[in-house]
Every structure is written in C-alpha cells, then in structure tokens.
Amino acid sequence: MIYVESSFFTQERWLISSLGRYFLSEEQQLVKQMLENIFGEIFIQIGSWGRSSGFLQNARTQHAAVLDWRFDSATTLICNTKTIPIQSGSVDVVFLPHTLELVPSPHALLREVDRIVRPDGHIIILGFKRISFWGLRHFFSAEGYPIRNQRLISESRLRDWLKLLSFETHKKEYYGCTFPIEKYSRVNFLSKKALLMQWVPFLNGGFVIHAQKQVFPMTSIRQKLTTKHLRVVGGLAEPTNRVLSDTRYKLDAAK
What does DSSP assign to residue 107? Predict the structure, then answer.
C-alpha cells in the first residue's frame, strides 16, 4: 500500500520552515492592515492556512470562523466548496488564503463566495505570483511548489474573474521578496526591500487582492403622463337637410 501525504500536511510542513514562516508573517501583517477599516458581523476564512487564530484575531467582526474541504484539517466547519452551507448575502468578509490554488474548482468557489457575500461585502485573496521565480519553481516541480498546489493564477486573470462577478478591486500589493529556495531565503533584502520590489518584481513571491462587491442602485422609471383625448370615429356629423327644414317650420309657426 502506497501512502500519499495529503496537501494539508504538506502545507503545514512548509509553513513551519523558515521560508514559510517568513511568508506567513508578511501575509498576516498585510491582511491585518486591510482589515483595519472593515467592520461587520461575519468573517469567513475558506481554507486553513497556518494557525486558525492567525488571521481571525485581526477580524473586526462580531463572529469569525474557518471552513475547509479537507477532512484532516482542524477547522470550524468541513464542507464542499461548491455548495457552502451559509445563507446567501449574509457574510461581510470572505478571506481566501491561497485557497483558489488548492481547491478542485476555483470558479465554483468564487461563485459561491459571490452568493454568500452581502452587497458591499469584501473579499481578500492571497496568491503566489505566476510570473516570478516562485512561478518558475512551481512549473519545474513535479508536484508543484510550495504546497503541492494544483495551479497558480495570475493576478490579472483573477481581477477579470472578480470583475465578471461584479467585484471592484480596491487594492493589490506584492510581498515575499526573496528566492523560493530554503538555503538562499536567508539573504537579507530588508534594507533594500522597497527598491527590489519595484525594480526586481521577479523576486516578489506573492500578492494580495482586496475587492468589494458592487451594488447597482435601482432607478425607478416614472411613467410619462399623457392626456388622452376622445376621438370620434368618422369625424363630427354634419347637419342634414331634414334638420334644416324642421328648424324653418318651427320658426314660421312661431310667427
């Protein structure tokens, strides 16, 4: 019997490496900044990524939960991402930490996210850059990199998908300015990080997108009031000779 390690345990093992910890710390900081001005009632994270409280503690909502589709993940709820058991239009914020790269059908998940997010609701997405050194390593790795992910989705294509679902992208940032190799990841780029991120974009390993669901106002169309005039079929009737003769007879009799 051949044992195949699940994507969840492969992910957890990578996240405790030095490269994974560096990546995760930057992601948590960026997401924290994006959540500072987002308030509401419900925050849902779809897909386990690091400690369950790592991102939930920064949510400024009354309730927060993590759900996953993998049975070996320790989450609040395990469900099929094609049919999420959440009421339509009830979630204020949906957070997808590299989830679209792992789920079997990213399009079906985005449609479900569109269904459960309320009008003016928010979606925050983390992803690995496709056009980068990280994308090259993923392409040449037999099982994908870094977490046995099935695909890498470019941020431009992702923005197009969101636009089709009536989401407007508010903010996009890159992070993870380092090589995707463990022994070279300790090279200190911090002193010139901003310069490298601008002029050497291939070093940026990840991106984060914040989008908001658009609401199209309903404009009532007032019906134009028109005055209807009574029309006589055939026009007005003209007096006949009989009417004129009867009138002359009455005038002669009065004399």
Answer: H
Domains and CATH numbers, the chain: 7-213 (3.40.50.150)
Q: Cβ-count burial of 166 within 10 angstroms (0-12 exposed, 13-18 middle, 19+ buried)?
A: middle
**Kind plus residue range of the DSSP H or E element containing 199:** helix 193-199
Residue type, 144: G
Biggest distance spanned by C-alpha atoms of the chain? 132
Residues 6+ apart with CB under 8 A from 98: 47, 49, 126, 127, 128, 147, 149
CB 103 within 8 A of CB 68: no
**Using CA atoms, how far apart are residues 216 and 98, in angstroms rounded to an integer?**
29
User: Closest Cα partner for 177 from 187, 168, 162, 167?
Assistant: 187
- Where b means 16+ CB within 10 Å and e means fewer, 167-189 reads bebeeeebbbbbbbeeeebeeeb
Task: Give per-residue pLDDT as tens, 41-81.
Answer: 999 999 988 877 789 999 999 999 999 988 877 677 888 99
| Dihedral sign for Cα atoms in the order 151, 155, 157, 162 | positive
Number of residues that make up the chain = 255
